[in-house]
Write a structure and sequence with these properties.
The protein has two domains: about 50 residues, no CATH class; about 260 residues, Alpha-Beta Plaits (2-Layer Sandwich), CATH 3.30.70.3420. Helices cover about 30% and strands about 20% of the residues. It has eleven helices and twelve strands. Strands 1, 2, 3, 4, 5, 6, 9, 10, 11 and 12 form a ten-stranded mixed β-sheet that branches. The protein has a two-stranded antiparallel ribbon with strand order 7-8.
């Protein structure tokens, strides 16, 4: 046995460089380049640096990854940084007017009606700064936000109109609006059995009276994750067993199991492509009762334990933003 075995990450880098060099030599030979022995040019005539840049600028479409391409809804998270000292009655009244014609999710129990989802829906949240924390990806415009407005609809038009109206109110007062946008898609990694295990008993959406807490957890998957075959990616969601049937690692499904009956969840995907340098691959949104906050924290701790959930070795998280759902704009800056 080697005293210093090569890590899987190092192996991946070695393999990448090996195949990169093979492509360079193949391209040089095909072009008749007499200096191919020292050439750093790829078969398309691009330098090594240019080729890596091309890879970064060519993120993956869902179809390229064996993921569903269907869009069943749109979401927008509008993070507002605006001190309470710059808030006045005119602002809060205008902000409440922005929501007219949309459904306020604050008092709604269960899933939206087709008509409400067509018109668009919104939820106001006041930040809980004591719970907000940066993770792997620093994003101050999100983590420092004292207000969040969550929007969802069957089509994006009403959400874009709302965002423009919000900017017109906030930015002249010296505030900022940071937008995370995503789309809802049908589940790609879910068998009938997993649906019965994880989704059939899942807690449906509820009013703020029952589920007052809201948390946003944006994340990216690494290039190594997207380079995997789809079958291998799917295995990370299931437990891993030894030959005697003992669980070696829980996987995503078992690590998150405690939250199924008490945490409602929405997942938004990057609108067009994964792996973009200027956004997130996924935006997770969760609502739960205040007394279930310890369960949410325990679930996130379990998911982040790469020994029990190896998937998370390929995850890079943005800030974890916590807030409390409120019914009107006048409550947004209270105790901020």
């Amino acid at each position: 046995m080697l005293e210093n075995p090569i890590s899987s990450e190092s192996q991946e880098k070695i393999c990448y460089r090996f195949w990169e060099r093979i492509e360079e030599l193949e391209g040089a030979v095909l072009r008749g380049d007499e200096n191919w022995k020292g050439s750093a040019v790829t078969k398309r005539g691009r330098t090594r640096t240019q080729r890596r840049s091309d890879m970064k600028e060519s993120p993956m479409k869902p179809a390229d990854l064996q993921l569903t391409t269907q869009v069943i809804g749109y979401g927008r998270f509008l993070f507002v940084v605006l001190p309470a000292s710059r808030v006045d009655a005119a602002l809060t009244a205008a902000l409440d007017d922005l929501g007219r014609g949309l459904e306020n999710m604050h008092e709604v129990e269960g899933y939206p009606s087709e008509e409400a989802f067509r018109r668009g829906r919104f939820q106001l949240l006041r930040a809980d700064p004591a719970c907000i924390g940066e993770r792997d990806i620093s994003h101050p415009a999100m983590s420092e936000a004292n207000v969040l407005i969550r929007l969802e609809a069957a089509a994006p038009e009403s959400l874009i109109i709302y965002e423009k109206g919000l900017r017109a109110l906030v930015e002249p007062r010296g505030g900022t609006v940071e937008v995370l946008a995503g789309v809802q898609r049908p589940r790609s990694y879910t068998s009938y059995a997993m649906t019965q295990y994880a989704y059939a008993p899942a807690l449906p959406p509820g009013s703020a009276r029952r589920l007052p807490m809201g948390v946003v957890t944006p994340q990216n998957k690494t290039a190594a994750w997207w380079a995997m075959d789809w079958m291998r990616r799917e295995t990370f969601f299931l437990p891993r067993y030894d030959d005697q049937g003992n669980v070696l690692a829980k996987g995503h499904a078992l690590a998150a199991a405690a939250g199924i009956p008490c945490i409602t969840r929405r997942l938004y995907h990057a609108p067009e492509r994964y792996g973009r340098p200027d956004g997130y691959d996924f935006i997770g949104y969760f609502e739960f009762a205040e007394e279930d906050a310890p369960i949410f924290r325990a679930v996130m701790t379990a998911l982040r334990d790469t020994a029990q959930n190896p998937e998370w070795a390929y995850v890079r998280e943005g800030p974890e933003w916590w807030g409390r759902r409120v019914v009107s704009a006048t409550e947004l800056w209270e105790a901020s």
